[in-house]
Specification:
Layout: H1 24-38, E1 45-51, E2 57-63, E3 66-67, E4 72-77, H2 81-89, E5 91-98, E6 103-113, H3 116-123, H4 128-136, H5 146-159, E7 171-185, E8 193-200, E9 203-212
Antiparallel strand pairs: 1-2, 1-5, 3-4, 4-7, 5-6, 6-7, 7-8, 8-9
């Protein structure tokens, strides 16, 4: 996770009550906007859950870089553990937790690589050190020493001395298209509000909203 990376901010929307909203992406954007105003650190941080080839789950924190009706976009090294698991299964889950707002959002859905031109455009917005790092780091693989990493950083820093750093083929993004989104709002005595939105099987453009017991 790179704290210096930038992320897109959804348009500000008027706050609405959880029970009044029937479109989950719009509701996510409302909550996300409030999180950007209230959350002290990384409001775009989210837990990403995957499974390996044995069905053993993995989870780690990544950063949301864009959200739209299409889905939730994040970037990584495709040769990392999460990259390989995502490419193999095409499925994943996300969880946002904003402690300052006492809110949580869980997302499950299908994952697909973003378009190369979109990955190229985003990659060029990253700080120079992060772009060099994408070339230098063999993410998730064994590292013999910190010195070995520093040598690779020096190697690619010299190779791209002019600051023109192209996106490596092994580094790109994923878009998670949600099939289910659950919103959780803290209430007294742990009697929380929970609403889940699921795509209509007969019309993928429609959502079915259900209230859940806390």
């Amino acid at each position: 996770m790179d704290d210096s990376d930038r992320y897109k901010q959804p348009n500000s929307k008027k706050r609405q009550n959880l029970t009044d909203e029937n479109e989950p992406i719009q509701l996510f954007q409302i909550w996300y906007q409030e999180a950007q105003e209230k959350e002290v650190n990384d409001p775009n941080a989210m837990a990403l859950a995957t499974v390996d080839h044995d069905g053993m789950p993995n989870v780690r924190i990544v950063l949301l870089k864009d959200v739209s009706d299409t889905g939730f976009v994040f970037y990584t090294n495709y040769e990392s553990a999460k990259g390989k698991e995502l490419l193999a299964s095409d499925k994943a889950a996300l969880c946002f937790h904003w402690k300052s707002l006492k809110r949580q959002i869980r997302v499950r859905g299908m994952v697909a690589p973003v378009a190369p031109e979109d990955a190229d455009a985003y990659f060029q917005t990253r700080p120079l050190g992060s772009r060099i790092g994408a070339w230098a780091s063999q993410q998730s693989r064994e590292l013999e020493s910190r010195h070995a990493l520093e040598k690779r950083i020096a190697k690619y820093s010299a190779e791209f001395i002019d600051g023109n750093v192209p996106r490596p083929e092994h580094w790109s993004g994923f878009c998670l298209t949600p099939m289910e989104i659950e919103f959780w709002q803290d209430r007294k005595y742990r009697l929380h509000d929970r609403f889940v939105f699921k795509r209509d099987r007969d019309d993928q453009n429609k959502w079915i909203k259900t209230r859940l017991y806390p």
